[in-house]
Structures are given as structure tokens and as C-alpha cells.
Amino acid sequence: MAKLLVKQVRSKINCPFTQKRGLEALGLRKMGQVVEHDSNPAILGMINKVKHLVSVEEIK
């Protein structure tokens, strides 16, 4: 299974509550923070919700 590096690149200030909770569910609390996740439908759905706030890299 592929791994994803997710980095928060934009602030969650003035975002809807659901997007703030999505960032927290991904484990992103601060700007510039990077977390690693397995690529599965649940994680990809959360990333899709906040795609304008994060950058995603696939690692092998």
C-alpha cells in the first residue's frame, strides 16, 4: 500500500468547521506540519475535503 506525506500549507482560519475537523482528523495541528498516512479511501476522502489547505506527496 502506498504511503502519503500530507503537509498543511495554508491556515485553517476562516474555514468551515468541517474542514477544521478534517485537518485535525488527519493529525495536522500547525502550519507546516507533516504527517504520514497509508493511502486508503477514508484518508483520501479527508484529503479531498481540505485539498486547498494541504499538499500531498506519494512515497514508496
- Unreliable stretches: none
Instruction: Using the CA coordinates, give the radius of gyration.
Output: 11 Å
Class by SSE composition:
alpha+beta
How many runs of DSSP E, i.e. beta strands? 3
Task: Note the run of SSEs as H and E.
Answer: EHEHE
Average pLDDT, to the nearest integer? 96
The total of helices stands at 2
Spatial arrangement of strands, main beta sheet? 2-1-3
Helix fraction by DSSP (H/I, runs of at least 4): 25-40%
Tell me about the largest β-sheet. 3 strands, antiparallel
Whole-Å distance between the termini?
8 Å
> What is the general shape?
globular
Beta-strand percentage?
Answer: 25-35%
Subunit structure: Part of the 50S ribosomal subunit.
Keywords: Ribonucleoprotein, Ribosomal protein
Family: Belongs to the universal ribosomal protein uL30 family.
Pfam families: Ribosomal_L30
Which key terms come to mind for this protein?
Ribo_uL30_ferredoxin-like_sf, ribosomal protein, alpha+beta, Ribosomal_uL30_ferredoxin-like, Large ribosomal subunit protein uL30, 60 residues
Topology:
Layout: E1 3-8, H1 17-26, E2 34-38, H2 41-49, E3 54-59
Antiparallel strand pairs: 1-2, 1-3
Describe this structure in words.
- The chain has 60 residues and is of the alpha+beta class.
- The protein is built from two helices and three strands, in the order E-H-E-H-E.
- The chain has a three-stranded antiparallel sheet with strand order 2-1-3, with no helix packed on it.
- Helix 1 crosses helix 2.
- The protein is globular.
- The N and C termini lie close together (8 Å).
- The relative contact order is 0.38.
- The model has no long low-confidence stretch (mean pLDDT 96).
